[in-house]
Amino acid sequence: xxxxxxxxxxxxxxxxxxQETLAxxxxxxxxxxxxxxxxxxxxxxxxxxxxxxxxxxECEDPGxxxxxxxxxxxxxxxxxGNRIVMFAPLYLSNYCVNECRxxxxxxxxxxxxxxxxxxxxxxxxVVALQDMGHKRLALExxxxxxxxxxxxxxxxxxxxxxxxxxxxAIRRVNVNIAATTVENYRKLKEAGxxxxxxxxxxxxxxxxxxxxxxxxxxxxxxxxxxxxxxxEAGIDDVGCGVLFGLxxxxxxxxxxxxxAEHLEAVFGVGPHTISVPRVRTADDIDPxxxxxxxxxxxxxxxxxVLRVAVPYTGMIISTRESKRTREKVLDLGISQISGGxxxxxxxxxxxxxxxENSAQFDISDNRTLDQVVNWLMDLGHIPSFCxxxxxxxxxxxxxxxxxxxxxxxxxCQPNALMTLKEYLMDYASPDTRAKGERMIQETIPKIxxxxxxxxxxxxxxxxxxxxxxFRF
Length: 472
Ligand code: SF4
Ligand code: SF4
What we know:
- The structure is a single chain.
- By secondary structure, the chain is α/β, with parallel strands linked by helices.
- The protein folds into 3 domains: 9-76, no CATH class; 81-366, TIM Barrel (Alpha-Beta Barrel); 406-464.
- It has helices at 9-12, 15-27, 32-43, 50-58, 62-80, 119-132, 150-162, 182-190, 205-211, 220-224, 226-232, 249-267, 296-309, 323-330, 369-378, 388-391, 396-404, 409-426, 430-443, 450-464; strands at residues 83-93, 136-141, 172-176, 196-197, 238-241, 273-275, 314-317, 336-338, 382-384.
- Strands 1, 2, 3, 4, 5, 6, 7, 8 and 9 form a 9-stranded parallel sheet that branches.
- Helix 2 (15-27) packs across helix 4 (50-58), helix 5 (62-80) packs across helix 13 and helix 6 (119-132) packs across helix 7.
- The protein starts with 8 loop residues before the first helix and ends in an 8-residue tail after the last helix.
- One iron/sulfur cluster binds at residues 96, 98, 100, 103, 105-106, 142-143, 178, 217.
């Protein structure tokens, strides 16, 4: 029985409700008066429920699709402006006791190189990431209580926050580790993590169980209820995601919105971010084995409808996607992207020899961080290395209320300029620096609040004189 307030996974992600939603969406895909009403509601920035969003996703009319894209662009512009926040993944360990069919770290893969970074190796990796200019990391590990216990993850977080190297600093560590206990989530919270990220992969229980034949992750309910345990432990920024291509995308699209509605109903705050990865080629993984692959057009539609359905949730896209695809979805709602990424365990300090491949997936966008920053500016986006909210205690419902009242832009815009300035001073190539300086000068007059504008100008001058780490 569908109940968004239930703590039981199969009740807040109720299969019958999803099937009925899909049938309702199919019936109404050309019901233009209804679609007009849904678009009007979305334009008020109140978001949409999963049924309304499913109708938009099902709609195929070219004229209405254009309206959906235009609204997604408008909402993106209103809530996020032209800023794009940068991050990089850091793989700590690829030991894994699970058997996920779509990931080369699965336990029975005997030819992939297994590695776990020592604390010294983590220092080398993080120094390399800082030398690129990164300030925000997403830690990635496989699940292995022996080779990658929680204490190792906690020690690694402490190591990362403690590294002082030139002007560099990792100011926010997000963590993507396996579903765990409330007690362990509490430890992560105490270690000062930013967002706890966990992908559901698919919300369809039957597919989930097929895709996860063994290991702790095979327990659908335990995995799906992980965000509840994280939030119970006090982690109020959580990041959801599905791996598109594993299952029917429409099903997972409805599922992720129901998950967001559940978190909102129970904890008063939905997910901080939603990630939209697609299955990629990797060591012994061939994406063609999964027959639910989605086209670039469908992918764009998913991003756009998510943007109008959950206008206050950040949306993340990684280097799984090519430059071309990333370019197409930036305007439609993406707020965070990775750049200069390595998806192997220990690939930043030193290139991994081919025979020691430990990568989780092949990267489509191989450009350096500087090239990505430069390209973003060519497209009119401000690359931002901002980490201010979490450090100012603006998390969970405090963060959401600022976003919903559209006050967060007063912080995001100047923070983007100041962190970009740091990047230009410390890491940028001459061409990127010139473009960035121009962008900063052009953007300053657009800061609406006079006091914030004045302080921003002062801080930019301080950064030019060697000071660092200003934030609103
Ligand atoms: S997806 Fe995660 S849990 Fe599954 S095999 Fe890969 S690393 Fe392990
Ligand atoms: S001010 Fe907050 S919401 Fe805005 S970019 Fe910085 S961390 Fe993100």
